[in-house]
Write a structure and sequence with these properties.
Blueprint: E1 11-13, H1 20-27, E2 32-45, E3 52-67, H2 71-81, E4 85-91, E5 97-103, H3 116-122, H4 124-139
Antiparallel strand pairs: 1-3, 2-3, 4-5
Helix pairs in contact: 1-4
Length: 140
């Protein structure tokens, strides 16, 4: 497992964790966040799935940098992101480092980028519900 819970550095998010509603349902609060981007990466759609993955690409992947996550919040993020991703440090456009969940070597991605608006319209409510249930299960 990737074990973000063992890290203390900020987390670069680019997909479902961009939504405050999901963060609140998952963590019980919306952590401090600021706009960030990672050069040399893109937020790719996954065929048939609602969530994206970060893969090498041209340009810079937009996202947010979450800071001040507690150890228990980092553990929850570990479970939420599961083993579908690799965890790695990435250098942001401004030179800082943020940890990010990126595609595993076996990931098959779509040629197009992920559409946050389409996700919000078609999947956000269900994801918020699922995140609240996951939080309740993990915290007992």
């Amino acid at each position: 497992m990737h074990r973000f819970s063992e890290r203390r550095q900020p987390l670069f998010v680019y997909g479902t964790l961009l939504f405050p509603e999901i963060l609140d349902a998952l963590l019980g609060r919306v952590p401090d966040a600021e706009p960030a981007s990672v050069p040399g990466w893109r937020v790719a759609a996954l065929p048939g799935l609602a969530y994206p993955v970060l893969v090498p690409g041209s340009g810079a992947a937009p996202g947010r940098l979450l800071s001040g996550l507690s150890e228990s919040e980092r553990r929850i993020v570990d479970v939420y992101e599961d083993d579908w991703y690799d965890l790695r440090p990435l250098v942001l456009t401004d030179g800082r480092t943020g940890w990010a969940f990126t595609a595993t070597a076996s990931a098959t991605v779509s040629p197009g980028d992920w559409d946050a608006g389409a996700f919000a319209a078609g999947h956000l409510a269900a994801y918020v519900e699922g995140c609240a249930a996951l939080r309740a299960e993990l915290l007992g």
